[in-house]
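Hey team,

Filing this mostly as a record. A colleague (T.K.) asked me to run one chain through the structure pipeline before their review meeting, and I want the input and output archived in the tracker in case anyone asks later how it was produced. No errors, nothing strange. Just documentation.

Input sequence:
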Amino acid sequence: MTSSVARTNPPLTRRAFIAAIGAGAVSASRARSQPLRSRLILLGTAGGPTPKAARAAPAQAVLVGDRTYIVDCGNGVARQLVLAGVPLSSIRHVLLTHLHSDHAADYGTLLLLAWADALTTPVDTWGPPPLDRITKSFFEMSGPDLDVRERDEGKPHLQSLIHAHEVPRGGLVMRDDRVAITAAVVEHPLVPLALAFRFDCPDRSIVFSGDTRPSESLVKLARGADVLVHEVMLPDRVPAGFSPALRHHILESHTAAEDVGRIAAEATVKTLVLSHFVPSAGPPIPDEEWIAPARRHFSGRIVAGHDLQEL
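Output structure:
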């Protein structure tokens, strides 16, 4: 038979107690001084307006602390956020690069569904004109649903929470205590105004190209960035069966993978993330087929993005 003896810690002296309190204060101070870590989640990586079996529509989320910033609102963006484990109530800013349907189809729906869930805090939205009119029109269309939920569920007045801001040109978009967001006008033919966005977060900088053909303004915006999320096209994979007008538009309005590599090299970014894949339909194309052309010009890290991937 064995016996066990309970072990007790020796009494804490006054000097040790003060030292422990001091160490805890230093540790807390250091924790407060650490920069907030940003998270980048690719919510949807397809290109084009029609639903794809293998990829969701274009959308990205940048999380800094407990705040979420959305870039583009392709169809299904709210569900992608739920799948990524991002609370809809954490959304504070929504930005649209341009008003093509694959980037803006669920703009209003995201706001509505976040509100139907647990959103009670203000949200600022940013994008090309006529964003203010689009926002008001969505609220008008959704009026019957909004009225019922306000009465039956005690929801706050959604229209009072959403503040739409039109971005008619490049320059500083907004700045808060977490990020500074800057825009540049990029070249996306037939679209009145297309924007790229740069996020300067406490720990790194992230640039989103939006839809664009090679644009010098994007190179300037992305100069020295830690991460560049750039649309990508394989011209020889664009279906020959498309109408001549559609094929011409696609080839003239987007950036070939090899040119994406040139842009990343010229901008001296650290990591290039390929997204908004054109084409996205049809048999899957291996990641290396997207990466190899860009690698001819860019020697840094290249990632072929996938839905719900976090970087």
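Quick notes for T.K.: DSSP finds eleven helices and 14 strands in the chain. Residues 36-310 form a domain with the Metallo-beta-lactamase; Chain A fold (CATH 3.60.15.10).
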